[in-house]
Amino acid sequence: MAVGEKITLSVIKADIGGWPGHSRVHPQLVETAEEVLSKAVEDGTIIDFYVATCGDDLQLIMTHRKGVDSSEIHGLAWKAFEEATKVAKELGLYGAGQDLLKDAFSGNIRGMGPGIAEMEITLRKSEPVVTFHMDKTEPGAFNLPIFRMFADPFNTAGLVIDPNMHMGFRFEVWDIKEHKRVILNTPEEVYDLLALIGAKSRYVIKRVFPKEGHKIAKDEPVAVVSTEKLFEIAGEYIGKDDPVAIVRAQSGLPALGEVLEPFAFPHLVSGWMRGSHNGPVMPVAMHQANPTRFDGPPRVVALGWQISPEGKLVGPVDLFDDPAFDGARQKAVEIAEYMRRHGPFEPHRLPMEDMEYTTLPGVLKRLEERFEKIE
Ligand code: F6R
Ligand code: MG
Ligand code: MG
Fold first, then answer.
1. Sign of the CA dihedral with 302 first, then 229, 172, and 153 last
2. Among the four 51, 139, 269, 309, which has the fewest Cβ within 10 Å?
3. What's the 317 CA to ligand 3 centre distance in angstroms?
């Protein structure tokens, strides 16, 4: 393997048990996943891996040559989650195996519970990549930051002053309710794009691509977000689909600091307690990604990597482990406090249709007889 060859980066995550409650991952689950993936390196299935955590989600970061949607790679991730679930059950962890919604693996992990962000890329001379890991929120939480990275000139100076970026990018947006997608070009269609992705519980950015004429081929993603909707898959509440994303950086793409800059603003996302509240997303180091206050507030971890010419993951660098993000963390605490004072009222609590839990149908049924017509 060398520069110019194709390699696939897969980030596959699942909540297979929390410790305690829904707060964090027990170290033995990490060790178990590491054992499974180490064997896969030995037998040549994958090139390299790292097992990360964010809140109660176990995150497998892998490089390999099998392309996206490979049954071998998805099967490997499934096996790692299954083995770790056995340990979670032994330890009596909370919600052991909760994201493994099917009993047996059948070729593709999509629709089976875990979240997936994958991209097959042609290795550049040097390949800086950031993997993002969020807990207690949903894929639409990435809409604002990914938009800012690739389309907002007030965030990304390169869009204005780097001749390699000035042409803009293409955004693939999914309508997750209707199961349709559309590709929009920026800067030309920026208002159309915002009209969609502002409705972040329905329209989510799935991928970003370069345009024709960019150094990177136009069909090669430069960013990808996981968009599995657990409640649609399972037909009942089993946790928010805490998302992950992969973003390539530098050399005609947003610089590392432009990729991280959107998170200096702890924007409001939906999730938090019972997947049913709005709150700020707090950028944290991995050791701080332990949602405690009201099961939150939601967290985002950013891990930085260089991918070596052999496809090895050189890292991670825990990018929010930096006093430069202390202000954003403090701001998130203030916003959390402000939002919490609203208790069960919107807009802290989500509108009815976006809530993951609701007693409302039962309450309405009980009160049915007592409701009177207003003339
Ligand atoms: C949110 C989340 C938690 C749980 C909450 C109740 O995504 O995971 O806030 O919803 O702790 O959990 P159960 O119903 O399992 O007691
Ligand atoms: Mg959980
Ligand atoms: Mg979680």
1. negative
2. 309
3. 22
Interior/surface letters 314-325, b for 16+ CB within 10 angstroms, e for the rest: ebbebbbeeeeb
For 148, half-sphere exposure in the C-beta direction (CA atoms, 13 angstrom radius) is 16
10-residue mean pLDDT series, the chain (375 residues): 84 96 97 98 98 98 97 97 98 94 79 92 97 96 98 98 96 90 98 97 95 96 85 53 96 98 98 95 98 97 97 98 98 98 97 81 90 93
Binding residues for dihydroxyacetone phosphate: 22, 136, 274, 295
Distance 281 CA to ligand 3 centre (A): 13
Q: Which ligand is nearest to the CA of 295?
A: 1
**Which residue is closest in CA terms to ligand 1's atom 4?**
274
Residue 134: CB atoms within 10 Å: 30
With b for 16 or more beta-carbon neighbours within 10 A and e for fewer, the 27-59 pattern comes to eebbebbbebbeebeeeebbbbbbbbbbbbbbb
CA-CA distance, 36 to 338, in Å (whole number)?
Answer: 44
Helix (H, G, I), strand (E, B) or coil at 30: helix
For ligand 1, what atom is nearest to the CA of residue 274?
Answer: 10
Q: Give the pair of three-digit tokens for residue 59.
A: 């995150």
- Taking the CB of residue 20, how many other CB atoms lie within 10 A of it? 10
Structure tokens at 110: 């999509």
